[in-house]
Amino acid sequence: MKTFLVPFLIIIVSTSEEIKTENDVMKIEYEITSGSVNSFTSDTNTTSLIVDITTSEDGSLKAVIPRNIIDSTYEEQDDIFYILIDGEEVKFTETVTEDYRTLTIPITKGSRQIEIIGTETINELVTVDEDLALATMIST
């Protein structure tokens, strides 16, 4: 299983005007068959995580995604993600824990982009290279 490391900075401004910062590293662990992951990026306008891929045959992407990178909830309960591959909705399987959501997504030969649409996503997630992504999150 490969891992994208996601260093991020949380800035918390309290009602007393105190500013606290905390550095941490989040990981997106993934395993892809019959292809490769080129990048992970976030889109706050669509609350989605975009995974650019290259595929040589049919296969699958299994991604262990921390809830603080992307999540899908409704009234404080887990809600479904919408998964699009090259703009078409696909079915997937999911395993849920308190901190992570593990998605197994079938991919077909020639697929180029997976969009995971939730209800909240990290403010900025940009891939630097194959094994490193940077993220910034600001909370109030």
Oligomer: single chain
Order of helices and strands: EEEEEEEEEEEEEEEE
Uncertain residue segments: 7-23, 128-140
* End-to-end CA span: 34 Å
Itemize the secondary structure elements and their pairings.
Blueprint: E1 2-13, E2 19-32, E3 35-43, E4 48-55, E5 59-66, E6 70-71, E7 73-74, E8 77-78, E9 82-85, E10 88-89, E11 93-96, E12 100-107, E13 113-117, E14 120-121, E15 124-129, E16 132-139
Parallel strand pairs: 1-16
Antiparallel strand pairs: 1-2, 2-5, 3-4, 4-13, 5-12, 6-14, 7-8, 9-10, 9-13, 11-12, 15-16
Summarize the structure.
The protein has 140 residues and is mainly β. The chain has strands spanning 2-13, 19-32, 35-43, 48-55, 59-66, 70-71, 73-74, 77-78, 82-85, 88-89, 93-96, 100-107, 113-117, 120-121, 124-129, 132-139. The protein starts with a strand and ends with a strand.
